[in-house]
Amino acid sequence: MVLTRFLSLTGKAIMMKDVHNFAQKVKPGQRNDVQQLIAEMKKAEGAKVVLFTDSDKTVTSIYFQTKEIIQTFQAQPEILLIDATYKLNDLQMPLYVLLIVDGNGEREIICLWLTQCEDEGTLTYLVDEFKKHNENWLLVRCIMCDKDIMEIDVLVNCLPNAKMLICLFHTLQNMRREISTDKLGISQAERTMCLEVLTKIAYSQDESEYNQLHHQLKQC
User: Fold this and answer.
1) Are residues 106 and 210 in the same domain?
2) pLDDT tens digits, 164-193
3) CA distance readout (Å), 25 to 9, 28, 83, 162, 192
4) Residue 122 and residue 65 share a domain
5) What is the pLDDT of residue 17?
6) Where is the ZSWIM1/3 RNaseH-like domain (predicted)?
7) 0.70 exceeded by the pTM?
8) How many CB atoms lie within 10 A of CB 157?
9) What's 154's DSSP letter?
10) Are 132 and 99 contacting, i.e. CB atoms less than 8 angstroms apart?
């Protein structure tokens, strides 16, 4: 089971690659049991395991942190990355992974959410739970996530001190969708040129290169 194996790493820094590596080891048909998962989570030192249930007392969301990863966030809270990973388990519950960037530029996982519901109310409860257990949330200065509007709205409302950024992949994807011959009334050649320059801008190494490319874009 991906998450059970994942819990064995709670005594050391946990990297995003660990989650993906475990996903590759899951055997087809292997069953993830919610109660077993919760029991494994609670074994971790200083574990914060919070369950959210519906009116029938069925678990709909699970919040999980360990003492180790809480301390990791406390030490380096400035940049917060949030991503939802699907099909890592057969609980039909997307796995939300919260990460920070350490002094070496490495990503370290600092919180996990499993949730059947991805509505505004549920995500707000999960963010509020994170704030409850992590007093340095006020020091978060930058949040990077995907293009999901609901997720962005919740983060903006719950973490007002932080600047929101959309990851580069989705930024370029949105550019390709919005810059079209039909929407902007431009030729295919003009569209291709604009996208090439914008892609270079996205990968600018410094302000000077950005300004040069920005000037080039205005000439397109």
Assistant:
1) no
2) 998 888 889 889 999 999 999 999 999 999
3) 15, 9, 21, 36, 41
4) yes
5) 52
6) 42-165
7) yes
8) 11
9) H
10) no
**Pair (30, 86) in one structural domain:** yes
Same domain, 30 and 76: yes
Same domain, 189 and 108: no
Separation of alpha carbons 39 and 27, rounded Å: 21
Q: Identify the domain containing residue 71 by its residue range.
A: 2-166
- Kindly list the distances between the CA atom of residue 172 and the CA atoms of 56, 177, 191, in Å, as whole numbers in the listed order: 43, 9, 14
* Span 64-113, pLDDT tens digits: 999 999 999 999 999 999 988 776 556 678 889 999 998 888 899 999 99
Q: Two tokens at 54? A: 């519906």
The 8-class DSSP code of residue 31 comes to P
Instruction: Give the helix/strand (H/E) hosting 105.
Output: none
The verdict on 39 and 128 lying in the same domain is yes
- The number of distinct structural domains making up the chain is 2
CB 62 within 8 A of CB 40: no
